[in-house]
């Protein structure tokens, strides 16, 4: 092109590369926020999933050569494995080599995901109990991962999938009723239950609702008064003084809906009514046993006294008295037995009262321990960021949204964990003691505002789009499948809008599924609006990392995890080899190399040797 009264532009002139306005094509995506290819990264497993036994560095290099500019490393070795991986297996030289690989390729290691097979909560849940030992062990693994992330990634995220503890959904605060049908949006696919835990031992007791509904209640929940058995009328009665207020032939059974109604009237959590009932039932049973023992003991003691009186009477023969002495010994033993039962009953009453003091709802206590764990991990990330010479960006840590069966799997629980962990971390940074214990994370001179900023910087969650999709299994199961998916996706996007505004997410794992089952398909290869969800995050100003976790289709064509992500987002390409070139979308590339899913057989671009095109005579593809 010629511009008169000026010299020609050469390829070295800046203006030579300026673009001109052109009509956008249908797939250019100009109306949407642009997510460049460089921002669409990939997860890379610590160990080679193809079975070719590549090491971690080789796995990373292979993905960088495919075009990945952002990589999240997925640690896969179980925490109890003595060999095979995890941060303890990579020394200073390996870490330095990893840093150099990313630096040389101008790529970014966004952080690491902890092995989900063994480190999946910070509440201490070990499958049966809330174990403080398990919680501390998981924190130790997190500390190692934070150090590794600062050393190798020079900052970034450490996330662990949030399977904090099991819970039902029927009584969750966020499980609201559909205004059209009156039914809750989500239904339990397993037996409904409430769970209680002893805060001293961590022992968990799950109580199915169907068992509660079969259990005779010794309390009239409507009045809060206890029933007692009246031997004259042979009925269970409620008395006030000598007056019978209420009588029933047998103890009542309540449906869970009845218990909810009574609890609402009293302004209580329904589960607490059940806990009180368990306590009262144990007390009543123990007291009844003690009453029986008292009666038996009194009877035997009366018999002993009668024998003692007879032994003092001189009119009885020596032979008769000898027999009574043997009888007295037996009666005395029986009296001692029931007296001992009374003593044990007193001890049991005390134990019941003590156990009741330490019996808590798992939802409450598990949440407390999880929040404390994430707060401690956040403080570790802050200290590592400040003290590690390689750290150029903040290290953050937090939960990855989990599965529906566990606390931490719903968006409301996910954000609550992060919010409360930030508050707890800020408290740790500004208090000498926390929960009555000396606090090793106290930072003298740090203001509350500074502590809040540090907590916000170092505790961030990881949002997995497929985990969110698993809620479809619980969503309005009475609907036809297509309508169910349509309405679920509308709910999905409403929740995304809330999350995108929350400023609590550090990494998005973009992954899809063809059903409500847990899946790892690339974006565009499933039924959930994961592309729209990610774009909504970008609209709201998301500055974190986006990585594809769609590795399920790698067995069909290696590289789909990344290439299909670019395709789904129609990621814009930019040509800088001539004027008048508009940004091109993925679908514009047609047969260009970036659109292919196999390695090239020749060198191209700046890699071409000076003597011309080069390719091996065997035509073996390059890695």
List its salient traits.
single chain; 623 residues; alpha/beta; TIM Barrel; 8-stranded parallel β-sheet; 3-stranded antiparallel β-sheet; 40% helix
Helix content: 40-55%
Output the CATH topology of the domain at 14-173 and 364-592.
TIM Barrel
Number of strands: 18
Q: Please count the helical segments.
A: 14
Shape: elongated
CATH class of the domain at 14-173 and 364-592: Alpha Beta
Secondary-structure arrangement, i.e. CATH architecture of the domain at 14-173 and 364-592: Alpha-Beta Barrel
Terminal Cα span: 40 Å
Strand order within the widest beta sheet: 13-4-3-2-1-18-17-16
- How would you name the CATH homologous superfamily of the domain at 14-173 and 364-592? Divalent-metal-dependent TIM barrel enzymes
Mean pLDDT: 87
Unreliable segments (pLDDT under 50, ≥5 consecutive)?
Answer: 1-9, 19-26
Q: What's the main sheet like?
A: 8 strands, parallel
Note the beta-strand portion: 5-15%
Structural class: alpha/beta
How large, in whole angstroms, is the Cα Rg?
A: 35 Å
Verbal overview:
This protein has helices spanning 56-65, 92-104, 132-153, 209-214, 256-266, 270-312, 318-358, 362-387, 411-430, 448-458, 465-469, 481-502, 530-539, 560-569, and strands spanning 40-45, 70-74, 108-113, 156-161, 193-198, 204-208, 219-220, 225-226, 228-230, 235-240, 243-248, 359-361, 395-400, 433-434, 437-438, 461-464, 505-510, 545-548. With 623 residues, it is of the alpha/beta class. It has a domain at 14-173 and 364-592: TIM Barrel (Alpha-Beta Barrel), CATH 3.20.20.150. Strands 13-4-3-2-1-18-17-16 form an 8-stranded parallel sheet. Strands 6-5-12 form a 3-stranded antiparallel sheet. The chain has a 3-stranded antiparallel sheet with strand order 9-10-11, with no helix packed on it.
